[in-house]
Design a protein that fits this description.
homodimer; alpha/beta; eleven-stranded mixed beta sheet; 17 strands; 26% strand; elongated
């Protein structure tokens, strides 16, 4: 069978998708029975030389969105608008859509999916999270018999690379970001990555599917990695932790907990070993137990793997005039767990005067705030007459941890609270 | 929609499948739109008390295979016959089938899939490999745009547990197997696991799908773990390796290479960190790069997760009277790479007289057989007047490695060649 495809965008991912569709058309048709026909490609600059036939190129989105012979629109422009508008117009025109757009899917995914359900077309978005790692299909199909209990993930390759360089080379945040930029792992403006927005978008998509609920990116508690101090990598190692930008979702007591922040991850935890620009997602389901999916979370070729995989899966539905996927339903107004009620272990590093009574004072505050201490390290500080104290705690309410942190910072004997991390 | 299901077998997995279908029927229907109706269950002993309504039980397979109201047969008996016969009869009767049977799928999977294609019914077998880890669907759907280059996996939980205990507790093979048996991770007769048959079945299924070729379990080169010597865990650690039962498939130069044997896996390799009875599969695709999938590879609940997931995916195809999966094709007579032509790195440990000339003799043999040495450790042996020598090599042909191993064992100064491992 033939599948008539229109492509919006010919950047890093789009170029790889076009290359696979054009260069491997016969091999794919032989293996899968699907003849992927690239009919039209929307580009910004028609004059720029490209590796694909110029008659396929257009600068006018309506050449794709309004062409009734095009069955599937692949959106690889990125960003919120006009990508969202194009997707909506394609769906309204009765076309299936495939997208790698995490911003649109995080903010408008449930709307687009519901619209597509009403129009009896499909929205595929495997490429929107984790490059070629099969995440969306795992939740939608493979783990559908499970109640999903927890998602713990490293969803942003840039920050993982930066934290890895800080840990490995002992360099500071700015230097590590500069390295990531020269290595092509970070944008000139790294904010979307290092401030946790990218991970929050991806986590909101995964949580929405996993829990069948509208989880907006604004619902995700978010802290980035700008404040991560090189000093803490040394203590982390000593205590048996790695520092990762953790994306975490769960549903304790029926309320959805979604958060992205730097965290101490025990060295034996599978997420601790995720190196470089990789992504990894650990899913806990009530039947399956723990499943871990790991791979390159971004890049033209891995993302193209997901896009073309989506196209081929879609083609088999189109062939029979039927769509197989579970119609997704989203609770429009799910209960969210406020951050203050989140329970986690914590790591607190402070510098205090090296004199009697400090430990007693800190210990009293922890106890009064309902926080139980799990371990403590005391070391000479670089600053004369002071000592560095590092505490880890047993699981405690965020409200208690933050109250303790603030009260400890206010003690006369405490010079600074240098770091606060949650521990997975 | 309703899906009328007949279940063959009510053992560890069957009981979990029945429990989820009966106990969570309404929740599943609400979430997925599919009402899973368990119509009949084949059991061996009708008198044995069970947690499900007795009117569902039958001792006669034809009550399920010949009941026209049953749309799907779930085969959870295990073993080759009569399971294969039941599956064939169900397919010939126009029923879809779901199976967790690795032996049948490894030996007869392509036949059953082709028969099912001719009858326009579906064969789902996600549960046959790796419990609830989404492996079959990953190859069939998510990575379908890729040329699969390599599969490197830990596919047998029992041997992974045994090797982990040998490494961690310094105990021998027999003792570790006894522990695995008391912990419920090994059968009374552990041969299927420890001799590598189980892993070879699973690998042949994965390789068949990945390469679109009939790979029979007998095509898999196979060595078990009975000869693994506790001593080598110490050297492995020193050299930065873990010892795993590796399942490996690739297609160098178009010929299929499939092998299961103990191997030295570098500590930084994701497979090295797979602990206990877990499974992990690292897949290399030409677009996606490396993807790792990890989880519990066996057990009633993880396997039931895959079975019920298959049922729900199947239901959505049945609803529309259409089947979405890529029709699988298998090269009936693929070229196989003979073991002698496999290239790998190797680890060789030998005990030799502690006198001049030994290293020169061993080095000459390696060189003459085209094997280049990568590292060497020499230590005093427990046996007076002898030394223990451990070599690792650069990649070399198996034929050369085996010739070198035999010639070295024949040297007058060499007392024993104590161990030979391939290194991934």
């Amino acid at each position: 069978m033939e599948l008539q495809v229109g492509l919006l965008g010919l950047g890093t991912v789009g170029a790889q998708v076009a290359e696979r569709m054009l260069g491997r058309r016969e091999a794919i048709a032989e293996r899968t029975g699907v003849d992927l026909r690239l009919r039209r490609v929307l580009v910004r600059d028609l004059a720029r030389p490209r590796g694909i036939p110029t008659e396929l190129l257009t600068g006018r989105p309506e050449d794709i969105l309004d062409d009734p012979s095009i069955q599937v629109v692949v959106e690889l422009i990125g960003g919120e608008e006009p990508a969202r508008d194009y997707l909506e117009r394609a769906i309204r025109a009765g076309k299936h859509v495939v997208t790698a757009n995490k911003v649109v899917m995080a903010k408008h995914g449930p709307d687009l999916l519901e619209l597509a359900g009403a129009r009896d077309v499909e929205v595929y978005f495997e490429a929107a999270v984790g490059g070629g790692i099969p995440l969306i299909s795992t939740f939608k199909v493979d783990l559908i018999a499970n109640d999903i209990e927890q998602i713990a993930a490293v969803l942003n390759g840039t920050t993982n690379y930066v934290l890895g360089r800080m840990a490995g080379a002992g360099i500071g945040f700015q230097e590590a970001v500069a390295e990531a930029q020269s290595a092509g792992f970070a944008e000139a403006d790294p904010s979307s990555d290092v401030d946790g927005f990218d991970a929050a978008y991806k986590l909101s998509i995964l949580a929405s599917i996993a829990f069948g609920a509208r989880v907006h990116p604004d619902d995700v508690y978010r802290e980035g990695i700008r404040e991560v101090d090189p000093l803490d990598f040394r203590y982390a190692r000593e205590l048996g932790y790695e520092i990762k930008l953790l994306a975490y979702a769960a549903r304790p007591g029926g309320r959805i907990e979604v958060r992205v922040h730097p965290a101490m991850v025990p060295s034996h935890h599978p997420l601790a070993t995720v190196e470089g620009a990789n992504n990894a997602v650990q899913i806990t389901g009530d039947l399956v137990g723990e499943v871990l999916l790991w791979g390159q979370g971004a890049g033209g070729r891995p993302t193209a793997s997901a896009v073309v995989g989506d196209l081929l899966d879609l083609a088999h539905s189109v062939r029979k005039g039927a769509f197989n996927r579970v119609a997704m339903r989203f609770d429009p107004n799910p209960a969210l767990l406020p951050m203050a009620e989140v329970r986690s272990r914590a790591y607190l590093r402070l510098r205090a005067l090296d004199e009697p009574g400090v430990l007693a004072a800190v210990g009293s505050i922890f106890a009064e705030e309902g926080v139980s201490i799990a371990s403590m390290i005391q070391k000479d500080s670089v600053e004369e007459g002071t000592a560095e104290l590092v505490f880890t705690t047993h699981p405690a309410l965020e409200a208690g941890l933050q109250a303790a942190r603030a009260r400890i910072a206010g003690l006369d004997q405490v010079k600074t609270v240098g770091a606060f991390y949650r521990v997975i």
